[in-house]
Amino acid sequence: MKLLKNKNVIITGASRGIGKGIAELLSSHGANIAFTYRSSDDQAKILERKLLEGGNRVIGFKTDASDFDSTNLFVDEVLKEFNSIDVLINNAGITKDGLLMRMSEQDFDDVMKVNMKSVFNMTKSVLKPMLKQRSGSIINMSSVVGVKGNAGQANYSASKAAINGFTKSTALELGSRNIRCNAIAPGFIETEMTESLAEDQIKEWRNLIPLKRGGTVNDVANVTLFLASDMSSYVTGQVIHVCGGMLT
Ligand code: NAP
Fold it and tell me: pLDDT per residue over 27-62, tens digit each?
């Protein structure tokens, strides 16, 4: 059964990792996909071709999600092509880890801007069309560290905690217009973002997870599909943990 037939979906940061997995799964469920990336031109082209083969429409757009004006331009383009936006997935994110003693102001600002401000930019941009059509699902990629904190990630966990607050407020403001907003808080998902971690650290993480494995991109994409589709029509304002039981 195709859960998103003819639905128009925006995904930020889909050239790699979780975003790419979400784009592939949602496209296989019939969605037209407009995605952004920051610098991976080749990977974005490969994804575009792959999704087109599935027979749905695709727009790949190189744009910095943390920039307000270029976000508006991107959304205008999507509306010209697709006419409406049914689902927004704010997935783009970066890490610049370090203990607070050594964390620079730049590293703090960059992470807040890409992870959090991008969510404000995109949500503001899609609001008008979603309000007009009186429907929409907004899904924000948070993290379990936004709930529990993590030493060495003060900037990252603050950005994700801010996303959780933003998600709940958006759900409260827009529920009466049939616009839902939820966050997904992945635990340890094995992607390029986590490849930079030391092998010992990865083993330690896996051992701490009740399901005894790191999560896969598909583990997160499946929950995203649920939140994007009408299967979750009575779910809003929630932060759903996808972490193998790491945080209960
Ligand atoms: P990833 O493999 O590093 O991919 C990040 C994606 O975001 C790439 O497509 C990248 O584009 C894009 N991006 C980065 N900065 C951008 C910007 N300013 N504007 C537009 N696109 C931008 O990351 P991931 O592991 O898939 O993580 C995806 C999301 O899940 C992030 O929000 C992350 O915080 C969250 N998350 C991940 C984990 C995990 O364990 N992996 C756990 C919890 C939460 P380019 O390829 O062009 O750079």
Answer: 999 999 999 999 999 999 999 999 999 999 999 999
d(CA 242, CA 40): 27
Q: Is 234 a catalytic residue?
A: no
List Cα–Cα distances, 88 to 2, 52, 77, 113, 203, in angstroms. Answer: 18, 20, 15, 18, 34
Count up the domains in the chain and report the number: 1
Separation between Cα atoms, residue 145 and residue 147, nearest integer Å: 5
Judge whether 174 lies within some domain: yes
In order of 24, 88, 197, the CA distances from 53 in angstroms are 11, 23, 35
- Per DSSP, the chain holds a count of helices (H) and strands (E) of 10, 7
Reply yes or no on whether the pLDDT at 164 is more than 80.
Answer: yes
* 98 within domain boundaries: yes
pTM strictly above 0.85: yes
Residue 1 within any structural domain of the chain: no
Pairing status of strand 32-37 against strand 58-62: parallel
Ligand 1 site, CB within 6 A: 12-19, 36-40, 64-66, 91-94, 114, 141, 143, 186, 188-189, 191-194
Backbone angles phi, psi at 52, to 5 degrees: -60, -35
pLDDT at 113 over 80: yes
